[in-house]
Amino acid sequence: MITHHLNDQLLMAYSAGTLPEAFNLVVATHIAVCDECRARLESFDAIGGALIEESVGDALVQMGSDSLAQTLARIKTSTPEPRKRAAAPPPRERVLPEPLRSYIGGGVDNINWRPVGGGVKQAILPTSENATARMLFIPAGAAVPDHGHAGMELTLVLQGAFADGHDRFARGDIEIADEDLHHQPVAEPGLDCICLAATDAPLRFRGLLPRLAQPFLQI
Ligand code: ZN
Ligand code: ZN
Q1: Per residue in 128-168, pLDDT tens?
Q2: Over 70: is that where the pLDDT of 200 sits?
């Protein structure tokens, strides 16, 4: 039962293909496990398609027929490649759905974890440089150091659950954090928590130790 979803801005930007790759990956992976957001995305795709058709029609009327070929050529070169869509939702027992699975090259056992302190581990995924995607492993009952955000942070839970003092997030839930949110995610006891997170700016740590370690950890 997913209770925290993508917002309209993220779905629209995903539909328009304007998100950095790291955010694209989080959105696509949420959509792979969330029927509700997949349905909302389809309506944004339909609106986007209608807008493009309308503006193409207007352009043709204004330009006259002799420049039709040029117009079409320009539209052809400016139209982005169709986005790769997440396939049908995977079986629920799989921790890592597509397209995340392909980024990692397999399942949880194939993740190349690095310790970041306190039992928490991370693995940075290869994406374009304007934002960072990472897998996070938070042992059951353990906490990520409390921090604020200089930009946007999307966190998608894939196994277990965490609470951050404001809300509880379980498998499939997505937390959208920005400059206004300061939080300390704590994994629930019982099951280790595995998340996919994307950030477009370094986190702001309150504690001295995490701040000192930050450049080495690329957080
Ligand atoms: Zn959703
Ligand atoms: Zn955060």
Answers
A1: 989 999 999 999 999 998 899 999 999 999 999 999 988 99
A2: yes
Spell out the residues 6+ positions from residue 103 whose beta carbon is closer than 8 angstroms to its own.
25, 125, 126, 127, 133
| pLDDT tens-place string over residues 55-66 | 766 665 665 555
Q: What is the pLDDT of residue 92?
A: 45
- Percent of the chain residues topping a pLDDT of 90: 63
Interval between CA 153 and ligand 2 midpoint (Å): 6
- Which residues, by Cβ under 5 Å, contact ligand 1, an ion? 5, 34, 36-37
In the chain, where the domains are located: 1-53+94-219
Q: Domain 1-53+94-219's class?
A: mainly beta
Which one of the ligands is nearest to 89 CA? 1
